[in-house]
């Protein structure tokens, strides 16, 4: 897995889903302040990766997002799993072989991890320090936000991130994230069937193990 992929996994983990109270004003600060509402989010994703030469590759699978880590389980076209927790990147291939790699000496990994942590803590000042954020509502129930990296650690790989979401009866959800890469390519994610269980199943817990 290359450096771009490591960064993208974290960035997508930031923006899966969250809920707002109806009385609150809909803005980016409100979104950040409510990120910690759910301890666990699960769902399905579809990824479309487009290279700078406009060649596209589509994949799909499931995800698990917790306060302690994230798991991306690709089911099609080739089965594989990428889990990030405890400063480790753990990958599992189609044959079930796990490989754990410490990221403690990877400055890029640690920088992105700090940003993720600040979001889950509702620290909008930290995300605004690392990104220039543009936020707008599209009618009464739709909105979008564009994040442009200020930090060179991120901007060398990602030029911007565009989020699209809904605001219906006090509930806010991200249904799409579009990541534009510095090399001219892009990655789009569609998120569906999101749930917030109280705890993980034993099978899901096993994904957060190094062996």
How would you briefly describe this protein structure?
This protein has 211 residues and is an alpha+beta fold. The protein is 23% helix and 45% strand. An 11-stranded antiparallel beta sheet has the order 6-5-4-3-2-1-11-10-9-8-7.
Verbal overview:
This protein is of the alpha+beta class. A hairpin with a 5-residue loop joins strand 1 and strand 2 (56-66). Helix 1 runs parallel beside helix 3. The longest helix is centred in the middle third of the chain and has 14 residues, at 107-120. It has six helices and eleven strands. The chain has one domain (3-206): outer membrane lipoprotein receptor (LolB), chain A. The protein has an eleven-stranded antiparallel β-sheet. It is globular.
Keywords for this entry:
eleven-stranded antiparallel beta sheet; 211 residues; alpha+beta
Helix amount: 10-25%
Shape estimate: globular
Low-confidence stretches: 16-23
Strand and helix order: HHEEEEEEHHEEHEEEH
Show the helix and strand layout.
Layout: H1 3-14, H2 28-33, E1 40-50, E2 56-66, E3 69-76, E4 80-85, E5 88-92, E6 98-102, H3 107-120, H4 124-130, E7 131-138, E8 142-149, H5 152-155, E9 158-168, E10 171-181, E11 186-195, H6 202-206
Helix pairs in contact: 1-3
């Amino acid at each position: 897995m290359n450096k771009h992929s490591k960064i993208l996994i974290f960035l997508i983990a930031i923006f899966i889903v969250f809920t707002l109270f109806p009385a609150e004003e809909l803005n980016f600060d409100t979104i950040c302040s409510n990120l910690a509402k759910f301890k666990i989010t699960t769902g399905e994703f579809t990824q479309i990766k487009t290279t700078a030469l406009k060649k596209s590759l589509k994949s799909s699978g499931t995800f698990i997002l917790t306060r302690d880590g994230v798991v991306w389980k690709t089911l099609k076209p080739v089965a594989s799993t990428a889990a990030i927790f405890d400063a480790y990147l753990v990958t599992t291939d189609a044959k079930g072989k796990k490989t754990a790699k410490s990221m403690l000496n990877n400055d890029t990994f640690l920088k992105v991890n700090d940003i993720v942590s600040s979001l889950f803590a509702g620290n909008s000042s930290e995300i605004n320090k690392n990104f220039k954020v543009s936020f707008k509502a599209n009618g009464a129930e739709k909105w979008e936000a564009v994040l442009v990296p200020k930090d060179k650690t991120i901007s060398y790989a990602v030029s911007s991130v565009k989020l699209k979401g809904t605001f219906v009866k006090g509930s806010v959800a991200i249904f799409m994230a579009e990541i534009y890469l510095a090399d001219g390519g892009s990655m789009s994610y569609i998120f569906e069937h999101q749930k917030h269980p109280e705890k993980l199943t034993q099978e899901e817990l096993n994904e957060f193990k190094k062996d």
